[in-house]
């Protein structure tokens, strides 16, 4: 799904990264070392993911691609929530092929900023498991809520 953002690239990127903060690596490493219970992980994750999602990885190859003469900008992300993924993982670990979700913010040749994201349910329903499919549909709704929070139109496929 690609959605026109209607604002400059840098402005939207900053808003997205505030709404979907980076994974707090050190915090979770300490929790793992302390072998905390799952309820503690759930609480820490809820604090890290105010809109259900966390950024686990960011790829910004713009400066490298400029060396080939490309001036368009694009930043890609892996966005997800490990506590939600866990609810599918124990049914089939292969769900990690699609969790976290891939997202991208990019400019087109006309300077328009776009946000692209994979529809969660389209991938997770392919596993043929009602439990995994249900979580994929829940992720569709969480994604719709995030898009609405960001002031973007919500594709009908998500609701």
List the helices and strands in order. EHHHEHEHEEHH
Distance between the first and last residues' Cα? 14 Å
| Structural classification | alpha+beta
Strand percent estimate: 15-25%
Number of helical runs? 7
- Spatial sequence of strands, sheet with the most strands: 1-5-4-3-2
Number of strands: 5
| Low-pLDDT runs | none
If you compute it from the alpha carbons, what radius of gyration comes out, rounded to the nearest whole angstrom? 17 Å
- Helix share of residues? 40-55%
Looking at the structure, what is the overall shape? globular
**Tell me about the biggest sheet?**
5 strands, antiparallel
Rounded mean pLDDT is 97
Textual characterization of the structure:
The protein is α+β, with helices and mostly antiparallel strands and 159 residues long. The protein has helices spanning 9-19, 25-33, 38-48, 62-66, 82-89, 120-124, 130-149, and strands at residues 2-4, 54-60, 74-80, 101-107, 113-117. Strands 1-5-4-3-2 form a five-stranded antiparallel sheet. It is globular, with a radius of gyration of 17 Å. The two termini are 14 Å apart. The mean pLDDT is 97.
What are its keywords?
159 residues, alpha+beta, 5-stranded antiparallel β-sheet, 18% strand, globular
List the helices and strands and how they pair.
Elements: E1 2-4, H1 9-19, H2 25-33, H3 38-48, E2 54-60, H4 62-66, E3 74-80, H5 82-89, E4 101-107, E5 113-117, H6 120-124, H7 130-149
Antiparallel strand pairs: 1-5, 2-3, 3-4, 4-5
Helix pairs in contact: 5-7
């Amino acid at each position: 799904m690609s959605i026109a953002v209607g604002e400059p690239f840098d402005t939207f990127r900053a808003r997205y990264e505030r709404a979907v903060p980076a994974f707090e690596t050190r915090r979770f490493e300490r929790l793992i070392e302390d072998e905390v219970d799952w309820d503690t992980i759930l609480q820490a994750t809820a604090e890290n993911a105010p809109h259900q999602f966390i950024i686990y990885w960011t790829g910004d190859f713009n400066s490298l691609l400029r060396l080939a003469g490309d001036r368009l900008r694009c930043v890609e992300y892996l966005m997800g929530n490990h506590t939600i993924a866990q609810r599918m993982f124990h049914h089939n670990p292969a769900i990690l092929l699609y969790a976290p979700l891939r997202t991208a913010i990019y400019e087109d040749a006309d300077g328009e900023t776009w946000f692209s994201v994979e529809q969660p349910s389209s991938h997770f329903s392919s596993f043929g498991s009602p439990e995994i499919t249900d979580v994929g549909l829940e992720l569709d709704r969480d994604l719709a809520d995030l898009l609405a929070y960001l002031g973007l139109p919500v594709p009908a496929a998500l609701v």
